[in-house]
Amino acid sequence: MKQKINANKSLWIILLVSTILVSCKLTEQYKRPVGIVDKALYRDGNATDTTSIGNVPWKQMFRDTLLQRLIQEGIDNNLDLRIATSRIKESEANLRQSKAAFFPTLAVNASAPVANTSNISGTSTLYQLYGTSGWEVDIWGKFRNSKKAALAALLQSQAYKKAVQTQLVADIASNYIALQALDAQLQVTRKTVENRKLDVEIMKKLKQSDVVTGAAVVQSEANRYSVEVTIPDLLQNIRTTENSLSILLGRKPGSIERDSLNQQQTWTGLQTGVPLQLLANRPDVMEAEYQLRYNFELTKVARTYFYPSLTITADGGFANGNISNLFNPASIFGSILGGLIQPVFNHGLNKQRLDVAKAQEEEALDSFKKTLLNAGQEVSNALYNYQTASDKIKIREKQIDFLQKSVDYTKELLKYSANTNYTDVLTSEQSLLAAQLNNVSDKVQQLQAVIALYRSLGGGWK
Questions:
Q1: Which long-range contacts (CB under 8 A, 24 or more apart) does 363-367 make?
Q2: Are residues 17 and 138 in the same domain?
Q3: Which H or E run contains 81?
Q4: Cα–Cα distances in angstroms (integers) from residue 148 to residues 88, 141, 142, 284, 294, in the given order
Q5: Do the Cβ atoms of 304 and 341 come closer than 8 Å?
Q6: 400 and 446 housed in the same domain
């Protein structure tokens, strides 16, 4: 007998310890994975300065007032941003519903005979007006964890909106710079065409003086048209870019007011801060972490289905065979019932639910890590692109200076010396044009690198 009592005590102790362990697992709080951010995420250097251009508001980052107006118009009217706002509203509704799960359900019912059955033997008439209520006690935190998951989903939708705005600001700025670059290339091309027209006139005069042959005149004409034929393509690209930018602004396709590329200020001292700041600055990284938190809470919810649920139900109301006496005190009835349900066999549904939740949590963790790696890659690429463009600009300026001298010298030699011909002039002019166009591209590459770095560090949503 004593051994039986000891065995029962041991069983109760085991059950108590198991319950405590289960309770700890179900009430575990989310913790960010350790070592999720590497100090060398940006590849080069090991920054310790927490100053980052990602914290700079976009109005301070982009000083061009015309660009500022376009960005504000995009934030006010962009359709993708409006869709993101609608998602936030959906998440808010889900959160409100998750909070309502803590309260009892309540339903009101009324019944009455649809036909007179008084002449049928063994039947009776009963009029009823009653309410039923049910309440599941949140013993294991099913509803608490569901609410936390809904909150994480709401925060994720808010982070998504920030990510959309960050990308929108970068896209508007990039398209604006691209328009300015096309304008600059068009200006260079048109100026070159005018110069080539002068070349044709000079060649004709030199032909009259027997300095050059008719072939040189024909070549100069062809040289002029080889440049002029690129103008329609530039105009088409300008129109296409304007239309793309108009869509970002939430307006019908049309012209875009803009300043010249030369007026754009080049940022220096591009601070990136420390990689850890991406967790608070970059919206898609925040979004990925909230997704992890969401799945973490749902895993805890899936665990609760393995344990007993306590449900309390209650009914009460009026019932009487005579409708005129329905609301008499004697017609009142009521009952309260408590039930404890322990799942034993549910076709493996509970285990399947937990396995799926665990797999989705692991997937969210890997997605979080991947998002961080992509962020580090983008920061590294943007930094190097900026440095590359800056180096090219310095070299290109020297190249253009010497090519301009080459064109001038070759033209002079063609007038007074037989040691050169128009082919040499043509070659030097084509090289100068290519260098001038590439100089515009270098400037654009530098500006686009700044925009890419700003976006990759999470700038644009503040």
A1: 363/295, 364/288, 364/291, 364/292, 364/294, 364/295, 364/296, 365/33, 365/292, 367/288, 367/291, 367/292
A2: no
A3: helix 79-100
A4: 16, 10, 10, 20, 8
A5: no
A6: yes
Token pair of 460 as six digits? 């644009």
Q: Identify the residue with better confidence: 344 or 166.
A: 166
Tokens found for residue 129: 């007006």
In this structure, are 50 and 177 located in the same domain? yes
* Structural domain contains residue 242: yes
Instruction: Of 238, 236, 250, 235, give the one whose Cα is nearest residue 172.
Output: 250
Is 11 within the bounds of a domain? yes
DSSP state of 43: S
Predicted confidence (pLDDT) per residue in 158-171, tens digit: 999 999 999 999 99
For residue 266, what pLDDT is reported?
A: 72
Distance of CA 384 to the CA centre of its chain: 23
Task: Say what angle helices 2-26 and 283-304 make with each other, to 10 degrees.
Answer: 160
Do 6 and 109 lie in a common domain?
Answer: no
Domain that holds residue 7: 1-30
Same domain, yes or no: 51 and 151? yes
